[in-house]
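Journal club prep, shared notes

We agreed each person brings one worked example of a sequence with its structure written out as tokens. Mine is DUF1080 domain-containing protein. I'm keeping it raw so we can talk through how to read the token line rather than staring at a rendered picture. Sequence first:
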Amino acid sequence: MTTLFLRKAAAAAFLTVSFLSARAQEWKPLFNGKDLNDWYVKIHHHPVGDNFGNTFRAEDGIVKVRYDQYGDFNNQYGHLYYKQPFSNYHLKLEYRFTGEWMKSAPSYTVLNSGVMYHSQDPRTMPVEQDWPISVEMQFLAGLGDGQPRPTGNMCSPGTHIVYKGKLDTRHCINSSSKTYDKDEWVKAELIVYGDSLITHIINGDTVLQYSKPQIGGPVVNNFDPKQKPDGKVLSAGFIALQSEGQPIDFRNILIRELKP
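Then the structure, token by token:
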């Protein structure tokens, strides 16, 4: 009986370790640390694939967003899209704001960036479309004025969400996160269950939850009307890193697909 018990215990331990190892192996890097070959660039005023001013760069194992080859910012909002769409997943990455904000960019873009999800395919965007129809996990840093400035917020270019059980048409909803400073690496996680529950996590704390992302509302301009059927619930789409006038770094970009 003792031998049988030990054998069963050993088998259970082996299966547990194997299961945990298998789960760990489910994480997949979206960024290989070397190049942007698995990504599409779309910058306002430019066609898909034109990485104007070398805005997005793969250097030192980091995706860097820079503007040193720009003149006037000229509302050249940009996004770097991973090559395939996702539906149910857990995304995690680290970001830090750095460098000097472009003074010709709109003032709200100071220490402001984000990651878009459930985005339209960038190849469906006209040259003059400014933002992708998507939902954003917005990243902000403190302005050094002692005022709170949470990060991990929700913004909705061309979309709406259901918040606290009701359709919420505000463009942005603040999270409950702490304020983090410029040049500080912050860990962000986004857990997406298709068209149902969405969770934002900052440095291990759940800071915002909502549901039912759907097409609707303003903020996006010069889009193809066929791409914006208002009221359509979004259950999948592309993931994109944002550029809007503030240098920022992204690293350790990982995804694990989930069961619905």
